[in-house]
Amino acid sequence: MFAFITSRILQAIPVLLVVGFIAFALFAYVGDPVTIMLGQDYTAAQREELVRALGLDQPFIVQYAKFVWAAVHGNFGLSYRLARPVSQLILERLPATIELAVTAAALALLVGVPMGVYTGIRRNSPTSRLFMVFSLIGVSLPTFLIGILLILFFAVLLGWLPSFGRGDVVHLSHWTTGLLTVSGLKALILPAITLGMFQMTLIMRLVRSEMLEVLRSDYIKFARARGLSERSINFGHALKNTLVPVITIVGLQLGGLVAFSIVTETVFQWPGMGLLLVQSIGVADIPVMSAYLLLVAVLFVAINLIVDLLYYAVDPRLRLDRRSMTGGK
Amino acid sequence: MNAVARFIDSDFLYSFRRSPVAIISALVALVCVFGAILSPWIAPHDPFDLASLSLMDSFKPPAFMADGENAYLLGTDDQGRDLLSGIMYGTRISLFVGVLAIGFALAVGITVGLVAGYMGGTVDAVLMRIADVQLTFPAILIALLVDGVVRAVLPREFHEKIEIYVLVFAIGIARWPQFARTVRGSTLVERGREYVMAAQVIGLSRARIMISHILPNVLGPVLVIATLNLGLAILDEATLSFLGVGLPPTQPSLGTLIRIGNDFLFSGEWWVTIFPGIALALMVLSINLLGDWLRDALNPRLR
């Protein structure tokens, strides 16, 4: 187990180094931050002062070393657009994105898995067909269109839910949460559905097809022959064995959740990291872009690691394989 | 039997005629493609002709609503442009970007896949490692960042002119690894076949063997993936344009139209954003369903 984790972490390091280098190259060579920050009118002395302040007058190696050293300490320099530390900007917006993504993922799992089980067991019932049509729409409609449609119905026509922002938030030292106020919870509903929709339909289809596969297998027939209850067969035996591919896809899709939070946050003007990124790209705010890139890389590497570990926990065969493999050598 | 007769008699056409979903999606896709290509000639209005625009005509509702006019079937936008015409021209741009981006991704992916699969060794290891790393990141995120970097490098006026090709590049570069991996997989299989050995024995160059001998035999599966990816590439473009980092309003794609219309959702002019949205969804859905059908029809195991 320990050897496994270590080797996975060692594999992740080159990935992070490559992404780090791209992030630095962006940071160092793209655009002219000095002109952007100074605006229209400036003197040569002002310009020189800013170049020195940003450390742009130093050689490549020094800048790279400084960049890595600073990044490891969570320091990504100043945003060109807002002239504030990037780490501070990101930390302010991190809670909003995490709350949105986690709610969306929970929604996708809590709705998607039961729907998948239901359509798998009663594959020809009218409800199942309805679910399947619904899932086709969920897979084909782009995220932003789902958001716009939800806003049109629930905010514009019915006026039940807010269409933008986070509502009232509560400050808990460094963390701001919208989960403790009524307006915060109401504001969370539409964005979470928008973001979770694709994952939800994906999970539903996956669980369904896996259930169909598993229910045909011999050990299910055997379980029936032993006279186990339907409930125990469906959930204790069948669902459990569908979980390995579901975990893979859900894990890998967490990355997609982060990526599409950018879109959802733009539609709903949700004050998270994704909205920050889009606003930064619009004006070529490189420090924010490179910090985001690094952060996302770390996040994805971590997700992949966790998915691998979950395999281990769910599928005992993997543990056996590894033991026999290493034992055989 | 000539080629036409063979085609009419083929399993392929048979399975197409047996599948209502495939027929309907093909029809919808054809309507989209022809409406898009022919838009300069068959669109009821020219949305880029400033002389024909009048602010008096702005926000006309669709023809089927109480205040609608028959001249503007789907209504008009904030500047009095006919929405139907705007959608036709927009679909043209969306399709253009999508097709070129997939073409670019195919070119890069096939080249990398062939070289990696045929050469093997370090070249293979390095190229596939790059593809794996890139596959960890969602394509839309890569396209967004590439687009952002190009935006930062180029001066603004120049950038607006070539944005359409920047998008092609960004979306294409975000989608090549999948093609590369598929081609590499089939190349590894083909490399061991006798016809490849024969070609090696008569001393053909490596490039010649890869291009004229292996390539035709590995193309099939890639083209199916390309169809499925075309829908995704069109969505990528729409998403970027919607986020405001894609095509500018002077060159509106469907995504740009949806973004423009989104500003008027609250003042009740829902059609400005909903109709382009429906057009986009229908086009992508039909392409995806066609791709699904093509995958099943060409997969002998499912017959």
Task: List the helices and strands of chain B in order.
Answer: HHHHHHHHHHHH
User: What is the fold named in CATH at topology level of one domain in chain A?
Assistant: MetI-like fold
Low-confidence stretches of chain B: none
Arithmetic mean pLDDT of chain B = 81
On the 0-100 scale, what is the average pLDDT of chain A?
A: 78
The CATH topology of chain B comes to MetI-like fold
Largest sheet of chain A, order of strands side by side?
Answer: 1-2
- Beta content of chain A comes to under 5%
The separation of the N and C termini of chain B measures 24 Å
CATH architecture of one domain in chain A: Orthogonal Bundle
Number of helices, where a helix is a run of at least 4 consecutive DSSP H or I residues of chain B: 12
Please give the CATH class of one domain in chain A: Mainly Alpha
Compute the number of strand runs of chain A: 2
Protein name (chain A): ABC transporter permease
Main location (chain A): membrane
Family (chain A): Belongs to the binding-protein-dependent transport system permease family.
Membrane topology (chain A): Multi-pass membrane protein
Considering the chains and any ligands shown, give keywords for the structure.
heterodimer, A: 329 residues, mainly alpha, MetI-like fold, 13 helices, 2 strands, 78% helix, 2% strand, disordered C terminus, B: 303 residues, 12 helices, 73% helix, globular
Describe this structure as you would to a colleague.
- Chain A: This is ABC transporter permease.
- Chain A: It is a multi-pass membrane protein.
- Chain A: Keywords: Cell membrane, Membrane, Transmembrane, Transmembrane helix, Transport.
- The complex is a heterodimer of chains A (329) and B (303).
- Chain A has a domain at 90-267: MetI-like (MetI-like fold, Orthogonal Bundle), CATH 1.10.3720.10.
- Chain A is built from 13 helices and 2 strands; from the N terminus they run H-H-H-H-H-H-H-E-E-H-H-H-H-H-H.
- Chain A has helices at residues 2-29, 33-38, 44-54, 60-72, 86-121, 126-140, 143-157, 182-215, 218-225, 230-267, 273-282, 286-314, 316-328, and strands at residues 170-172, 175-177.
- Chain A has a two-stranded antiparallel sheet with strand order 1-2.
- In chain A, strand 1 (170-172) and strand 2 (175-177) form a beta hairpin.
- In chain A, helix 11 (273-282) runs antiparallel to helix 12 (286-314) and helix 12 (286-314) packs across helix 13.
- The two termini of chain A are 17 Å apart.
- With 303 residues, chain B is mainly α.
- Chain B has one domain (2-302): MetI-like fold, CATH 1.10.3720.
- In chain B, helix 9 crosses helix 10 (206-243), helix 10 packs antiparallel against helix 12 (271-298) and helix 11 (254-262) packs antiparallel against helix 12 (271-298).
- Classes of the chains: A mainly alpha (329), B mainly alpha (303).
- The A-B interface holds A 15, 18-19, 26, 30-31, 136, 139-145, 148-149, 151-152, 156, 163, 255-256, 258-260, 262-263, 266-267, 277-278, 280-282, 284, 286, 289, 293, 296-297, 300-301, 304 and B 133, 136-138, 140-141, 144-145, 147-149, 151-153, 231, 235, 238-239, 242-245, 258, 262, 265-266, 268, 270, 273-274, 277, 280-281, 284-285, 288.
